[in-house]
Design a protein that fits this description.
Layout: E1 19-21, E2 30-36, E3 39-45
Antiparallel strand pairs: 1-2, 2-3
Length: about 55
């Protein structure tokens, strides 16, 4: 684990996120996988109904 102090910029790591928009009924609207040093996480989300979700 990196120590954050005066050189906190060293504790950041730029990421590029590639997403997948889905338009099928009953499926989440947005899915992406974010990878990081210790593994990865899948983010699944959709807009609230009043915003078209």
């Amino acid at each position: 684990m990196l120590s954050i102090g005066k050189g906190s910029f060293q504790a950041t790591e730029p990421k590029v996120i590639t997403d997948h928009w889905m338009f099928a009924d009953g499926m989440p609207q947005f899915v992406t996988i974010v990878e990081y040093r210790e593994g990865k996480v899948t983010l699944i989300t959709e807009l609230p109904p009043f915003a078209g979700g």
